[in-house]
Amino acid sequence: MKSVIFDCDGVLVNSEVLLVDSEMAFFRQHGLEYTTEYYMANFMGIPMPDWKAKTSALLVEINAKPLPEDFFDPLEATLSRRIEQELQPVTGAYEALKSLQYSKCVASSSSNQSLVSKLKSTGLFELFDPHVFSTELVSHGKPAPDLFLHAANQLDVLPIDCIVVEDSANGVLAGKRAGMQVIGFTGGGHCPPGHANALLSAGADFVATHFSEIVELLDK
Questions:
Q1: What is the mean pLDDT of residues 24-43?
Q2: Residue 158, pLDDT above cutoff 70
Q3: What is the per-residue pLDDT across 46-72, written as a single tens digit (0 to 9) for each?
Q4: DSSP string, the chain
Q5: Predicted confidence band at 175 (pLDDT cuts at 50, 70, 90)?
Q6: Are 207 and 184 in contact (CB under 8 A)?
Q7: Which domains does the chain have, with CATH numbers?
Q8: What is the value of pTM for the model shown?
Q9: Which of 112, 142, 121, 136 is nearest to 15 (CA)?
Q10: Burial of 33 (0-12, 13-18, 19+ CB in 10 A)
Q11: Per-residue pLDDT tens for 84-105?
Q12: Distance between CA 100 and CA 198 in Å, rounded?
């Protein structure tokens, strides 16, 4: 019997489009500009501490001075407000998940508090509870396989029997390193042209553009 492991941001909820827009605007104010494609390849799908470390290093290099401790506070306030006011589930997610006959869980790079909040506010938490796993549960976040292996263990299934649904190259890498099949998902509002190719290059076995396609792939 298959088990399905879903990423959250950009797969279940349309948070990535809010994150990318807010973060790119914030960094432009501080002299750091990058394309959406660069962001998604380098920053998307990794735990927040790793994200802060990578972006901080770039900003320190550009500005030639250390960042103040509260540097990210305005960005975090903006993200919190936008997610609270604007967050929506990905189109087709609720209906597909409700009908899915396989065991399933969520495995996300978000903190547990953020993950649960996003799932509850979009009405998806009840479809996964208690199988909701954040990166805080493991020593190494994506692209390491630890979180997906933890999820498989909690579902009491072998990695080879798991299928991961991911929208980021880092998530795809984590799934493949865990020995699982991976469906790359481009149905979130943040995915630029060519993102499907990026997911395939990272090792995705299939690519789906809508939840109905995910269901079709799972039923094969």
A1: 84
A2: yes
A3: 888 888 888 898 888 887 788 888 999
A4: --EEEE-SBTTTBTTHHHHHHHHHHHHHTTT----HHHHHHHTTTS-HHHHHHHHHHHHHHHHTSPPPTTTTHHHHHHHHHHHHHH--BPTTHHHHHHH--SEEEEEESS-HHHHHHHHHHTT-GGGTTT-EEEGGGSSS-TTSSHHHHHHHHHHT--GGGEEEEESSHHHHHHHHHTT-EEEEE--STTPPTTHHHHHHHHT-SEEESSHHHHHHHHT-
A5: very high
A6: yes
A7: 3-14+88-218 (3.40.50.1000), 16-86 (1.10.150)
A8: 0.85
A9: 121
A10: exposed
A11: 899 999 999 999 999 999 999 9
A12: 27
CA distance 124 to 145: 24
Kindly state the tokens that stand for 91: 């189109």
User: Please, are residues 142 and 174 in contact by the beta-carbon 8 Å criterion?
Assistant: yes
Q: How many CB atoms lie within 10 A of CB 205?
A: 17
Are 3 and 162 within 8 A, CB to CB?
yes
The average pLDDT across 117-145 equals 96
Token pair recorded at residue 116: 């649960």
